Amino acid sequence: SLDIELTTYHAPAPPCSRGHTPPPLQRRSRRTMVDVTKWPLFSLMEGEELSSIRQACVFGTSANEVIYITHNDDVYVFGLNCSNCLGTGDSQSTILPKKLDFLSGRKVVSLSYGSGPHILLATEEGELFAWGHNGYSQLGNGTTNQGVAPVLVSASLLNKRVTEVACGSHHSLALTNTGEVYAWGYNNCGQVGSGSTANQPTPRRVSNCLQNKVVVSITCGQTSSLAVVENGEVYGWGYNGNGQLGLGNNGNQLTPCRLVGLQGLCVLQIVSGYAHSLALTDEGLLYAWGTNTYGQLGTGNKSNQLSPVQIMAEKERIVEIAACHSTHTSAAKTQSGQVYMWGQCRGQSIVLPFLTHFSCTDDVFACFATPSVMWRLLSMEHDDFLTVSQSLKKEFDSPETADLKFSVDGKYIHVHKAVLKIRCEHFRSMFQSHWNEDMKEVIEIDQFTYPVYRSFLEFLYTDNIDLPPEDAIGLLDLATSYCENRLKRLCQHIIKRGITIENAFSLLAAAVRYDAEDLEEFCFKFCVNHLTEVTQTAAFWQIEGNLLKEFISRASRCGAFKN
C-alpha cells in the first residue's frame, strides 16, 4: 500500500466573513434544458448541425415549420412555408435549412407566431421584424400583402425598444422596455384594445387602464390579449365568450379590464392557450380560467370558468407554467423539478394535472400537444462531446484527479488547486501566502456548512449553483465574504424564486445585511404586497429595531398604510 502524509491546514476566515447559521436542507431543484430532437422535424439534421443550434421554435398549424438561431447568431428556417411564414422570399417549402441573411448577426430575445402563421421577432437592440400571413395587417406595415421576407416594423415604434412579442391567431402585441404595449392586426373582438372592432393596420399603443401602468409581460390567446403590470395586476381585453379574460362574465372587452378575481395576488407569469389562461403568483400558486372542453383548466371537470380558480393547491410550489394559443394543453413545473400536464394530450382529455417523467414543460408539448409546437423560443445545450467547461464540470469532486481536498462537517470535497487559483481571488491570495507545492493538504472549513461550501466550489467549476432557496442564504453570506459578485447575483435569483410569506422578512433582513440591493428591493416589494400576512409572521417580530423602523418608514412612503 502507498502511505500518503496529509497536512491539515485551517483556512483563515475571509476578511469580511460574518456569522453563519445553516438553514435546513430540502430537496434540490435542477434546471434541465430540452432536447430539440424530440421534435421529428429535426431528425434529418446531422449532429454537427444540431450542436450549432442555440435557440429554436417549431410552429405552424400542423407544427411543420421551424426557425432556429445558431451560436453565431445566424437564423435558419425550414418546413412547409404556409403563407410565406419561413421568410425566404418565396413560397417554396424546404426540407433543408435556409439561411435568412437579413437577420444574421442579430441576437434574438423574443419570438412568437400566429395561426396564419405570421411571425414576430424582437432583437437585443429592440428592433422588431415581422413576416408571413398578413390578411388582417398583423404584420403592422399598413397593408394586407403577404410578408415574404422579414421587414422591420417601424410605424409607431420609431425610437422604441421592443423587449417582448406575442401573437394571437391574427393579431400582434409588442412590449417596450418602458412598459408600453402596442397592438395591431385583426380586431373583430376587441383584441387590439383600441375601443372599437375595426382592424388596426399599424402598431397602436394600448392605453385606457394601462395608460399609467408599467407592463412587464404579455400573452395572447387566439382572439384575446392579457398583460401583467409591475405590481402583479393582470389586465385582459378581446374575446371573452368562454371566460378566457377571467372577468367573471362572457362579454367581449374592447379595452383593457383588470381581473378582479386575482385581486390581492401578485402575478409573476401568465400564459394563454387557445381559449384558456394560467397565472402563476409570486408565492408559487397557480390559477386557471376560460374554456375547459378538454380539461385544460385542471379542475377535475370540463366546465368553463369565467373567473380564476386555484388549482394544484395540494402540490408543492409551482415555478413555471406553460400554454400556447394553438393548443389546448397545459403544463407546470414544481420547485423540485416535477412536471405535470393536463388538457388535450394526444387526443385524450386529462382533466387533472398528471405527473410525468419529463424534466421540463417543453417536453410536454413535444410529445403530447396537438399540434406539437413549441410554446416558447427554446434554448439548447448539447452532450455529444465534452467542451472545456464540460470537462471541468465532470472532474469536480473527483478523487482520481484532485490534488487538494476540503473537509467540511466531516466530509471531503476534492478539488484542483489550479482551477481554484484561476477562478477565485480569495484562493489565489491564500495559496500564495500559505502554500507548499510539495505537500498534499486538507483544508478544514468551519465557517460554512457542507452543502453551502460544496455548492460554492462547484460554482467555480461550472458557473452554476444547485441549491434550495434556504441554503442560498448561506451561499449569499459566503459570496459576500469572498467578494464573488456573480455568485451573489445567482444566489439572489434562487432566493427570489423561493420567497414565501413566512420567510419574506428574514430574506429582506439578509439582503440588507449582505448589501444585495436588487434582492432587497424584490423582498421589500413582496413584503408590501403581502403586508398584512407578513406582519403576522414570527420573522417580522424577531427583526432588530432599526431595520423594522426603516421598513415601516419606507413602506409608509410607498403608501402601504393608506386606506
Automatic annotation (TrEMBL):
Domain of life: Eukaryota
Keyword Repeat: yes
Pfam families: BTB (PF00651), WD40_RLD (PF25390)
Region (Disordered): 11-30
BTB domain: residues covered: 402-469
RCC repeats: 73-124, 126-178, 179-231, 232-283, 284-335
Transmembrane intervals: none
Keyword tags: Repeat
CDD domains for the chain: BACK_RCBTB1, BTB_POZ_RCBTB1_CLLD7
PANTHER family in alphabetical order: BTK-BINDING PROTEIN-RELATED, RCC1 AND BTB DOMAIN-CONTAINING PROTEIN 1 ISOFORM X1
Protein name as annotated: RCC1 and BTB domain containing protein 1
The gene coding this protein: RCBTB1
